[in-house]
Design brief:
Elements: E1 2-4, H1 15-37, H2 40-46, H3 54-74, E2 76-89, E3 91-97, H4 111-125, E4 130-136, E5 140-147, H5 150-158, H6 172-182, E6 191-197, H7 206-215, E7 218-224, E8 231-232, E9 234-237, E10 240-244, E11 254-255, H8 259-268, E12 273-275, H9 282-291, E13 296-308, H10 310-326, H11 333-336
Parallel strand pairs: 3-4, 3-6, 6-7, 7-12
Antiparallel strand pairs: 1-2, 2-13, 4-5, 8-11, 9-10
Helix pairs in contact: 1-3, 3-10, 4-5, 6-7, 7-8
């Protein structure tokens, strides 16, 4: 397993395109100045020692050295020791509604993004619990199996969007059924399913599935996203809103929170129903319920020791800088005989 000890340094890579643009602009301006001064072929004869490609080579060396320096500062680490450790926690599967209605903006920035932000904060507060992710719309899919790797959970969470499932709908029953298959162990406890949805247009018998889950010891909490008053679903193109989603008759679709369905599912699953707000504290209430549960012991293999690899990147950066230092700004008469830089004037 690899990781960056100081991943924030990687943001400096965003400066590279800016440096390239500055260099391109400077060279373009220099060429324009030479053209204004006189004929380029004549100028090249008057200044025979002026290099043709060395500036580009020197810049390439400098920019590459900068990239390796940034990676060196970020400090790539490689896991060198894998150990099996014992942990005590519960298994948590979060089922996320990714139907188009989750793009409604009655909760800011929208229902789905608010859900992802709340889950991310929940992951930050987990300690020894395992977490899994399920996405559902017209059907349900396992996005992430149960894992104690919270970094992986955040990575998979960030990729979730409404276009991840082509079949539209809100098949909460399918999500519950898939969650039951995804839990490990035969114990009738230590298992929690959190369903986050607007509850609208659920197409299967979610109540029956919740009853079956409760009989297997799974506690189901539900979180309602949106408002009973409802909101239209915005349509964006290139991050610019171009209108609202419409039905076949051309009417704007207004999606409303169906609290009664989610309340029934939570009640059947021996859990709690919570309506989401812009404060995004609903999962903290769920976490309080989880913290009060009995924990189970399980084994997990994790890397307990990492070896630094920053020195390799910094060594390459230093080598590139040394090479750049010894490349003269003037044309080397001995090297010019070999025409290494393709002198077009010969």
């Amino acid at each position: 397993m690899i990781r960056f000890a100081n991943i924030e340094f990687l943001y400096a890579l965003l400066l590279i395109p800016m440096f390239v643009l500055i260099y391109w602009y400077a060279m373009r301006k220099k060429k324009k100045a030479l053209i204004d001064f006189g004929d380029l072929n004549l100028i090249s004869r008057l200044i025979p020692d002026s290099p043709k490609y060395k500036y580009a080579v020197k810049f390439l060396l400098l920019i590459t050295a900068l990239v390796f320096t940034i990676f060196g500062l970020a400090n790539l680490q490689v896991g060198s020791k894998l150990e099996e450790i014992k942990r005590e926690g519960v298994d948590i599967i979060i089922a996320i509604d990714v139907s188009n209605s989750m793009k409604a903006e009655d909760i800011k920035p929208n229902r789905l993004e608010s859900t992802k932000q709340a889950i991310s904060r929940l992951i930050d507060k987990l300690q020894n619990d395992r977490i899994g992710l399920i996405v559902f719309a017209g059907d349900a899919y396992l996005q992430l199996p149960l894992t104690p790797d919270y970094s992986a959970a955040k990575l998979f969470l960030s990729s979730i969007d409404t276009d991840i499932i082509p079949i539209q709908g809100t098949a909460i029953g399918s999500a519950i059924r898939l969650a039951m298959k995804s839990f490990v162990g035969s114990e009738k406890k230590y298992k929690v399913l959190v369903v986050i949805s607007d509850g609208e247009n659920h197409e299967d018998d979610a109540i029956s599935e919740a009853k079956n889950a409760a009989e297997q010891g799974v506690i189901i909490h539900t979180i309602g996203m949106g408002s009973p008053m409802g909101a239209p679903i915005p349509v964006y193109q290139n991050n610019v809103q171009v209108g609202f989603r419409k039905d076949r008759e051309g009417n704007i679709v207004v999606t409303k929170l169906d609290e009664s369905a989610l309340q029934q599912i939570a009640s059947t699953g021996n859990g709690k129903y919570i309506r989401a707000t812009n404060q995004q504290n609903e999962l903290e209430l769920v976490l309080q319920e989880i913290s009060a549960m009995e924990k189970k012991e399980y084994a997990a293999k994790i890397f307990t020791d990492y070896e630094d690899r920053f020195q390799y990147f910094l060594a390459i950066a230093l080598l590139l800088l040394v090479i750049e230092f010894f490349i003269s700004d003037r044309k080397n008469k001995w090297l010019s005989k070999w025409n290494l830089f393709g002198d077009a004037n010969k």
